[in-house]
Amino acid sequence: MKHILATLLFAFLTQMGWAQLPDGSISPDFTATDLSGQEHNLYSLLDSGYQVILDFSATWCGPCWTYHTSGVLDELYEAHGPSGTNTLRVFFIEGDDNTMQADLEGTTGASQGDWITGTSYPIIDNGGNIFADFGCSYYPTIYTVCPNKILTQSGQASIVGHETLLNSGTCTPASLPNDALLMDYVGQTSTCGDNPAALSVRLMNNGLDTLTACTIQVSKVLPFNQSEVLGSSDWQGELGTYDYTTVDLLDVTIDSETLFVFEVISEDDNEGNNTTQGSVTASEEVANNLEVRMKTDGAPEQLGWSITDGTGSVVASVLPGSENLEPTTEYVWDVTLPELGCYTLTLMDEGGDGLFNLATSMDGVGFLEVNSTDGETILDQDWFYQELDAFSEVTFDLEVTQVTSVEELGVLSNVVLFPNPASSWVKLAYGSTRAGKAQLVVRNVTGQEVIHRDLGVMSAGNHRHILDVGFLDAGTYLVELRVADTIHSMILLHP
Length: 495
Hints:
With 495 residues, the chain is mainly β. The protein has helices at residues 42-47, 62-69, 72-80, 101-105, 128-133, 159-166, and strands at 31-33, 39-41, 51-57, 88-94, 123-124, 141-145, 151-153, 180-185, 190-191, 197-205, 211-222, 226-239, 244-252, 258-264, 275-282, 285-287, 289-295, 303-308, 314-318, 330-336, 341-349, 367-372, 377-382, 393-402, 412-418, 425-432, 436-443, 449-458, 461-468, 475-483, 486-494. The model is unreliable at 1-19, 358-362 and 384-390 (pLDDT under 50).
């Protein structure tokens, strides 16, 4: 059967609320005291030119114990710590504040063993606040922080793997006079309609001299390993060593997912860190009637979603805690977007672990699915326990280019708003094929809610309601009838 609705492509926006800090992030600072009573400040160590490895673990964690007892970090510390090349510092950070000194000593049944004996590098207990600041969502999480404060999740790497990262040009201390480093892409990652995407990158001075100017070229990646230079931007300013700033580049219009390459092309002493990439996705066309389907994880009270229009006004939502959702249960909401234009779907998890609850087994895995009304799946996204799948908030873009009336869907029928225009009162009549909570909402042209009436639980059948509009200012209004999670929108003229 030919699908009436076109496929909708959702794309991640720039500001995703991932719990885990992604590679290339600037590390948070912290000050902590180890078991021997010595205080350590991360930024002071980095400013002194040290590289730092942070092992976030928990005494009850089996994989943490396996990696700890492998001796990898001990060997690294002996080779590159104070008794070696003196370029590296390593810290074990117990991230679960429910553990005790006895757990570190391995004298409790909850601990994997003795974490202290034989460990050559400092151990920091009660590091839950540091664990949270780094956005960690699982154990072990192992970061390498370079002197420029840029972090990389090095993970449970071998000695060779760690040393490869430590010896890379982006992680060694600044040594060259003129070294401009492109950290990452921070511009728009999606566009809607004909709206152009604003391209931006973060620029760091990785050199010893103050960076005052550089030129950044923008290229579009084409098929068959080809590329097209779109232009370049000249930046001028003043950045000291390891200082960074956002550089706004070009505004581009795209019609499909496009990968861009950004490169410093001005004179530079280190070409190994002069490029970074970023992609922008264009939304595809879709009709306005959608089905949002979600399976909750083990903590459903933390979950919610909303859809906002181009002005930021919410047109449909299920906020965290607003409904009595059950764990690991599927829910379906029918959504009718009121008009043509661009919309944003936001999935929320107040627990910060995405649709996977860390306190449960794999039964806690959920998913988000969006379908068109003809049964075509638009978005089908599973979130499993991986570092990039943990989030507190993530958004997707969509564009409505076709409006299909709710009456066509058989949910509501014979929806009539009369008289229209109306100066004092208006009557709303409709028929519904399903029972459910009913609500009337009236919004002005700015999206502000001016009337809100809860009609209670309405049975299937025909209904009529009288709405007083005499107090409203003259103008055009959007009337939304919500029944059983279905929204039908109408225009009301108030002379």
